[in-house]
Design a protein that fits this description.
The complex is a heterodimer. By secondary structure, chain A is mostly helical. Chain A is built from 13 helices and no strands. The chains are: A mainly alpha, B mainly alpha.
């Protein structure tokens, strides 16, 4: 166990750190290690074969493609929502501000059935869209809709505080020096919130890759077309194909950890920029 | 300021402003307000009698009980962990501190399905401890214990990541003063630390609770989907929905949606309270 660097008069270092490490080890690290140990037992060739079959590759494409599209939609509209909430005042602003966190609080299964009902061919939004020739539910578009809902708060909540701290004086200076509104937005505001926007995008993307509950209802779950990687893991587990499930899990976990690292770096960069 | 200030274009023209507000509203309406309204509309569409019946049938009540039991175990465990971790990390400096903070966030980066799967690899019939558990006639996977474990894993970071930045900002000075003045460790924690972090603690617990009661993917993997026995509320919703009992599914869903709305109200009130107290810099979760 590491020793406290500076001697402190406070008690409880050993006890609290000991409990923290034991709890973290038993509940998180040991269970997570099973995935890597199990896949190591498959050998490289076996792992590679299980992780790259046509159906598995299609599921990565669906998962990553839809997650990327949803995060991009959220980057644009999340920024718009943050901007409107910070810069303008209108009736109901505080209620809307609080409701932005709904996707964090609402169980994913509830979101899934609600979105499916709305966007199904006979649904409130699905019907007019179908008349226009756009099918949403049970197509890749439906997956993007569900993942957009899930990722909605991330961009808003990372951009909002930075926008709040941004002094309008710099924009005033830019304006008084003859910049147009669009120029001062592009040259002053956008560079300042850039790192936060990128962080929000990465957070939404990371969350969307692993999402399961809200997607399975609306996706239609057709192999090769609308089957996401987490669902394929689920299917393989139900067929007792633990090796196949583990191989996909290793690929997804590795990517998630890389993303987590990227997000930490982005946040560090963002803090340094605003400090 | 002089009237000339009005000429400076630091605000957008009226028309642009209106367009931006309408754009933001349209987006939120499509992705937030309509789904929210749809839950309650679908739940009550077939009348109140059916709504009440869906919530009071034995399987629904069993799901409520299991959901509450799971939350009652997972939330206090993670709250105790959050307090211990925040105490060690915020009040002391040691090597590997930043690594520990990153490791605590790990469960957020793991797909819920994988969060459930790891407990099957550990405790399932073909898992590491499977043969031993079978020999001792212990059932963990496809039963309540695995549901509790998976939920605890998924909600693991919530309290810790609220408390760590909060307590780091407060620093160890107040506690050190109390100890130097002769207070015991426990007295210091109860009289100095706890009053300072109570709202942050409550905030973390509320978020943890909401997720614990609503978790679907992780629980779905390890539950045996046995009606009335190993179904939590979200799993019960899935079964009803897949059986085309839409009204009943949305009735149960409306219960969880109501809980989510209560969570948002409490969360907003707590945020306002914390903002008034001299604690700054809330990182988004």
């Amino acid at each position: 166990m590491p020793r406290a660097k500076r001697r402190s008069v406070l008690p409880g270092f050993g006890l609290s750190l000991g409990f923290t490490l034991a709890y973290l080890g038993v509940l998180v690290l040991i269970p997570l290690s099973t995935v890597f140990v199990k896949s190591a037992g498959m050998g490289w060739a076996g792992f590679w074969e299980a992780a790259t079959t046509a159906r598995v590759m299609a599921s990565y494409r669906v998962s990553f493609g839809a997650a990327f599209a949803a995060a991009a939609i959220n980057a644009v509209f999340g920024f718009l929502v943050a901007w409107v909430l910070v810069r303008y005042s209108f009736p109901g602003r505080r209620v809307i501000d609080a409701l932005v966190d709904l996707p964090f609080a609402l169980p994913t299964a509830v979101a899934g059935i609600a979105l499916t009902t709305l966007y199904a061919p006979a649904g409130l939004l699905g019907k007019p869209l179908a008349a226009l020739g756009v099918k949403v539910a049970f197509t890749p578009l439906g997956i993007i809709v569900a993942l957009t809902f899930i990722g909605l708060p991330f961009v808003v909540r990372t951009v909002q505080p930075v926008l709040q701290d941004l002094e309008t004086e710099v924009e005033e200076a830019a304006a008084s020096l003859g910049a147009s509104r669009w120029q001062s937005f592009r040259r002053v505001v956008f560079p300042a919130i850039g790192p936060a926007l990128l962080t929000g995008f990465a957070l939404a993307f990371a969350r969307a890759i692993g999402e399961y509950g809200s997607v399975v209802f609306i996706a239609g779950n057709m192999p090769m077309k609308t089957e996401i990687a987490p669902l394929l893991i689920m299917t393989k587990l139900e067929q007792f194909d633990y090796a196949g499930a583990t191989a996909i899990a290793v690929v997804m976990l590795t990517l998630s950890f890389v993303l987590l690292l990227t997000i930490n770096l982005l946040q560090w960069w963002s803090r340094r920029r605003t400090a | 300021m002089a009237p000339a200030a009005r000429a400076l274009p630091v605000r957008e023209p009226r028309l642009v402003r209106a367009a931006l507000i309408i754009g933001a509203f349209g987006f939120l309406a499509l992705f937030l307000f309509l789904p929210l309204a749809a839950v309650f509309y679908e739940a009550l569409r077939r009348g109140l009698a059916l709504y009440v019946a869906a919530l009071t049938e034995p399987d629904a009540l069993a799901a409520v009980r299991l959901t509450l039991l799971t939350a009652a175990i997972a939330v206090p465990l993670n709250a105790a962990f959050g307090l211990a971790a925040a105490w060690a990390i915020a009040k002391f400096r040691f090597r590997g501190r930043n690594l520990l903070i990153t490791l605590i966030d790990l469960p957020f980066a793991v797909s819920p399905v994988i969060a459930g799967m790891i407990f099957i690899l550990l405790f399932g019939a073909h898992g590491w401890l499977g043969p031993w558990l079978q020999a001792h006639d212990l059932q963990i996977v496809f039963a309540a214990p695995a549901i509790v474990l998976a939920t605890t894993f998924v909600t693991f970071p919530f309290v810790a990541r609220e408390l760590i930045p909060l307590m780091m900002e407060q620093g160890p000075e107040e506690e050190e003063a109390a100890i130097v003045l002769g207070a015991s460790g426990w007295q210091t924690f109860r009289r100095v630390t706890l009053p300072n972090i109570r709202w942050g603690l409550l905030y973390g617990v509320i978020l943890c609770l909401a997720r614990a009661m609503g978790e679907f993917g992780a629980v779905s993997v390890v539950s045996g989907h046995i009606r009335g026995e190993t179904n939590t509320l979200p799993l019960h919703i899935e079964i009803l929905y897949n059986e085309y009992s839409f009204s009943a599914a949305f009735a149960v869903a409306s219960l969880l949606t109501f809980l989510a709305l209560v969570t948002l109200v409490v969360k907003t009130l707590l945020e306002r309270r914390m903002r008034r107290e001299p604690i700054l810099e809330r990182t988004p979760s």
